[in-house]
Design a protein that fits this description.
Strand order of the largest sheet: 5-4-3-6-7
Strand content: 5-15%
Largest sheet: 5 strands, mixed
Order of helices and strands: EEEEHHHEHHHHHHHEHEHHH
Structural class: alpha/beta
């Protein structure tokens, strides 16, 4: 097929440094601000670097192989067992996406822990990992879920109950846990969280007095920034094309562009499109749904090692993931498996 040189690609391969590489994106697994009690365990943001012509050809190939009468194809078509061969072809090293696609994964419960610890403590990253990995073992499933729900409620913009109810609930949970589990690997973290009430009060006051530019609990915006940084590696200039959605307001698009550039991305621009009108976004939608399902299965114990192995080359090293066992299976081969990304 003929490559689209305006997009800096020829049959999906990147052009020389200095050309603008256009990358198309979509997501799967959004539950709004309900990250601890929603329908999905994982949020996935996928991106593909293909010309429009090449992507259209791959979408036609998928339709020809699956032969479903559905007007619009989604990831669940490829995930059906009877279409296993099509899924393996799509992800395989010799397939159309290999080396041309990327998936940024977010483990939702870890994202909540990471965000609440980051909000309340100055050195939150390592503390969040320790609390996330030790908490379930120490507290038990029920008390751990109670802590997660309270943290989610503290961070969410929507206010349930009185003005101080989310803050009161969270710090009651923290106090109960620190008294119940002294001299444990997380006791110091709990003590420090208990002393951070003023930060939580300030945060709640800020989000209730005006519109919030970047909702703390929405993983989409940081995932897009990570995508821009990934594709800018090696000094390439990137333009992102994304499925249109209400979260991506003009003000938030400006925030994405400014944040990505501050982190070193050579971001030329950000454009919103209707997914069904851009075959590249359709492929990103397929990959996001596939990546979310495979990663969720791996998080719950792993049911299909072959599919996990096929997904691994696409997984971003900057993914937000806390579970050590599943990350050891999902992380790309060049990432140290004993560490978080």
């Amino acid at each position: 097929m003929t490559g689209n040189r305006e997009n800096g690609v020829a049959d999906g391969r990147p052009g020389p440094v200095g050309e603008v590489v256009e990358v198309a994106c979509d997501e799967s697994g959004s539950d709004g601000e309900n990250l601890t009690g929603g329908n999905t365990l994982v949020f996935a943001h996928a991106s593909v670097r293909l010309s429009v012509e090449s992507a259209a050809g791959q979408v036609r190939e998928i339709r020809d192989r699956i032969r479903s009468p559905a007007e619009e194809y989604k990831a669940n078509h490829l995930l059906r067992e009877k279409h296993r061969a099509v899924l393996e072809w799509l992800l395989a090293p010799a397939g159309p996406l290999h080396g041309r696609a990327h998936v940024h994964l977010t483990e939702k419960t870890f994202f909540v822990v990471d965000r609440v610890v980051d909000l309340l403590l100055d050195d939150g990253s390592a503390q969040a990992v320790t609390l996330f990995r030790e908490g379930p073992r120490l507290f038990g499933a029920e008390r751990w879920q109670g802590f997660l729900a309270a943290a989610n409620r503290l961070l969410r913009i929507r206010n349930d109950g009185g003005a101080h109810a989310p803050t009161d609930t969270f710090f009651r949970e923290v106090d109960a846990l620190r008294h119940a589990y002294p001299r444990t690997p997380v006791s110091g973290i709990l003590e420090r969280l208990a002393q951070a009430r003023s930060r939580a009060d300030s945060y709640r006051a800020d989000i209730t007095t005006g519109p919030t530019l970047v909702p703390v609990l929405n993983p989409l915006l940081p995932a897009i920034v990570a995508t821009a940084v990934h594709w800018s590696a090696g000094g390439r200039t990137v333009r992102l094309v994304h499925d249109r959605q209400s979260m991506l307001t003009p003000e938030r698009v400006v925030w994405i562009e400014e944040t990505a550039r501050r982190l070193g991305a050579r971001l030329d621009g950000f454009r919103l499109v209707v997914a069904r009108e851009d075959p590249r976004v359709q492929l990103a939608d397929f990959l996001a749904g596939i990546g979310r399902k495979i990663a969720s299965d791996e998080l719950q114990g792993g049911t299909d090692p072959a599919l996990t192995d096929l997904l691994r080359p696409y997984v971003g090293t900057g993914s937000v993931w806390g579970d050590e066992r599943s990350w050891a299976r999902l992380a790309p081969a060049d990432v140290e498996r004993s560490l978080l990304p």
